[in-house]
Amino acid sequence: MFQELVHAKAFQNYLEKVDFPQKPQHLYDPIRYILSLSGKRIRPLLVLMGAELFDDSAIKQALPASAAIEFFHNFSLIHDDIMDVAPLRRGKPTVHQKWNDNVAILSGDALLIKAYQELSKCPTDKISALLRLFNATSLEVCEGQQYDMDFEERAQVSEIAYIDMIRLKTSVLLGCALQMGAIVAGADERSQALLYDFGVNLGIAFQLQDDILDVYGNPQSFGKQVGGDILSNKKTILFVKLQELVSPADQEELTYLLRQTIDTEPNKVEKMMDLYAKYDIRTLAIYQKEKFTTIAYEKLIEIQVETDKKQALFSLADALMHRVR
Amino acid sequence: MFQELVHAKAFQNYLEKVDFPQKPQHLYDPIRYILSLSGKRIRPLLVLMGAELFDDSAIKQALPASAAIEFFHNFSLIHDDIMDVAPLRRGKPTVHQKWNDNVAILSGDALLIKAYQELSKCPTDKISALLRLFNATSLEVCEGQQYDMDFEERAQVSEIAYIDMIRLKTSVLLGCALQMGAIVAGADERSQALLYDFGVNLGIAFQLQDDILDVYGNPQSFGKQVGGDILSNKKTILFVKLQELVSPADQEELTYLLRQTIDTEPNKVEKMMDLYAKYDIRTLAIYQKEKFTTIAYEKLIEIQVETDKKQALFSLADALMHRVR
């Protein structure tokens, strides 16, 4: 993991040199604020690792692309938090909460444009390819956010539609990050596509795991309230699987539970878990998670570079998927 | 003006071929809607005229850039209308009014990304320069919108600050449109800069004229309620000029008027116009408008191409500034 710290440091140094003007304050202060909340910086790391996989010496050239991805990600957080009326982000007030909706809309817009400004600093002969990939991915992320909001209004969501939503909303950006690194490093198109697929499938597997851990995770290590998704009737892989399999008799119980809160039904989480157990939903969800994880690893294996060079990405994937090898 | 109709038709044909997916509906329907409200399409026309000035044969190649500018403009309308809580746009319900704020935020975001998707379709060797100009301009437009909102909260705004705000919010995009056309047509940097300055100065002059016509325009030909800016206490060139010149004695009257509505003071417009007359504000504003118009024309004159070729831009400027020559 030593190399990851080197990348993180390089990214941080680069970020500190990006120019955000002092004025107008209400436009740029929120940008400095959201970027200071930092988070895991997993996406810029993927850009740098994607470059490193094909050419060690291309890492520095990949820094603007890594900033573009991080800026895009933070732009989407600012706007998603308005739409989701979220009060907190990484334990701190969200931008629209700290300032107001208008400030959050406009500073988000400016941060999206700053992402493209980073793209314009990439090696000139690579800008066209990077721009096309980045645009297609950014639009998909918007589509994913829209489907996510649409699904909240719908009673029924199929498993296929759900997985496609998480692919668009969160996974394609991981694939895009890796592929942008590969593009900067001059990788051939076949290798680019394999690395992209590795990222997308790993991203889906990671999201499915998140759904599973919300119900079956160890509260200490998971760091969130267990059962939070059940209490808020969130569509998850467990929920959509149950919906597909539930018998007419149990549908009545499910419909009842969905109408309850922790106040009207203190055992809502336990009762929903009973339904999950009856239909073996946990096993089915783990099967899906494993399926996407396996596809991801297969794609990485298929890339034609020395196995040693892939070690860092395998380790990162293992760490994300809590795997021990 | 015949050539302008040819450009308008070429742009419309191009626009109809741009792909906006059917799904998710709430993401792309609002985009189709705002683009269908059309408006004057002045910005894409400027791109095509900017290209034509240097190379007739580059007009077709400039179509994606013209779409990028029009998409950006419409993105900014969608988001500005949320921030301004505007119910109507071009006489029709605004996007946030017809759908809701979330739909307007996200479809606006998608339209901004679609603008960059058009940029990626520009001639490959020009993309880098176009991207840098477009990014810098887009950020400036955001800064202008932020200053505009900031100024609403402030009692005092200087003339310099006001003119800088309208330069950022509306004028730089006109300069950018013209320069993008020039870039596609392969114009040298000096000519690009002159054409940009022509657009920016013309844009400022046009906005100042709009401020003047709101008070002194012929209600029939102006098409808006005369005095609307006065009734809403809008910062205009007339207002900031008066603020700078008003005597302590008249300041009392001004402060009184700013606290009145049409209900508490039916003669608010007339009384404010009396103050304007006392300080000869109209003349001073017209002087400023003429100053920027003159700079604009000088910049256009300075460009090293045959005078014949500039005729279309002179005519367009004359039409915008209601000039007769």
TrEMBL record, chains A, B:
<keyword id="KW-0479">Metal-binding</keyword>
<keyword id="KW-0460">Magnesium</keyword>
<protein>
    <submittedName>
        <fullName>Polyprenyl synthetase family protein</fullName>
    </submittedName>
</protein>
<keyword id="KW-0808">Transferase</keyword>
<comment type="similarity">
    <text>Belongs to the FPP/GGPP synthase family.</text>
</comment>
<dbReference type="GO" id="GO:0008299">
    <property type="term" value="P:isoprenoid biosynthetic process"/>
</dbReference>
<dbReference type="GO" id="GO:0046872">
    <property type="term" value="F:metal ion binding"/>
</dbReference>
<dbReference type="InterPro" id="IPR033749">
    <property type="entry name" value="Polyprenyl_synt_CS"/>
</dbReference>
<dbReference type="InterPro" id="IPR000092">
    <property type="entry name" value="Polyprenyl_synt"/>
</dbReference>
<dbReference type="GO" id="GO:0004659">
    <property type="term" value="F:prenyltransferase activity"/>
</dbReference>
<dbReference type="InterPro" id="IPR008949">
    <property type="entry name" value="Isoprenoid_synthase_dom_sf"/>
</dbReference>
<dbReference type="Pfam" id="PF00348">
    <property type="entry name" value="polyprenyl_synt"/>
</dbReference>
